[in-house]
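Example 3.2
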Amino acid sequence: MGEKYKPWIIFLLLLIITCSRARELVGSGTENKILEAISDENHETVHTEHEHAHVHSHMDHMNPSVMVFLTLEDLKIGKTMAVYFPKRDPATSPKLWPREEAESLPFSLNELPNLLKVFSFSANSPQAKAMEDTLRECESKAIKGEVKFCATSLESMLDFAQTILGFTHELQVFTTSHQTKSSVTFQNYTFENIVEIPASKMVACHTMPYPYAVFYCHSQESENKMYKVALGGENGDRVEAMVVCHMDTSHWGHGHVSFQVLKVEPGTTSVCHFFPADNLILVPKVEQHGLSTM
């Protein structure tokens, strides 16, 4: 692996090692793979029927997994709302491959039949459908003002992030951190503290279902805001959650699930969303003093 990536590999190893603590990580050193989880919304999710009994009646039978959206006006200390946080087992989740290994296989929807043979998946299997959906999403056209890229390796992720954020900047990575162990995925949380993280630009990377780890990374030209929110669950769970607010949604499609959840129209309000623990936000490094608290 190239010399220029060694500091980042050490840094991103820390992302795994410190997964039980608040993860607000400054780029300085790393040596291994990152975030060993990628799956569809149900894969490796541990929950029981009673987990969302307290909030289910208020959600109009909506799939709990979409309950991650809110508006900027909702970000107030003391507010309580139902939030879904998937719980996945990193030990059994797909791993992020080195660039050489990832680039040895095509990453293309046209090559899906051959890829299914490589991974020994039948054409009608759930795995085949997940791969097709991921490849289709990765090849879809970006919305106006958005730059997107599906990273199949650590190196390609960092190359994309530095292209957007600038090669002269040291990068900083933020993730959601679960500070208590629990199998509960959906419950009411109270906002206990909210801190805005200043970022002139950001790249968000979301895990996608695939046999090895793939991150859907994107950046938008429109204004975005980023917050670290301390949450207290009704069962005692503690979460330091990352929230990103998109201030201009006028170019989003009317069918976007956030509009259905919030019951709003594109461009009429900000749309914010919580990040799962296996998603990343990369920004130019900022000083930690003087951050604004809401």
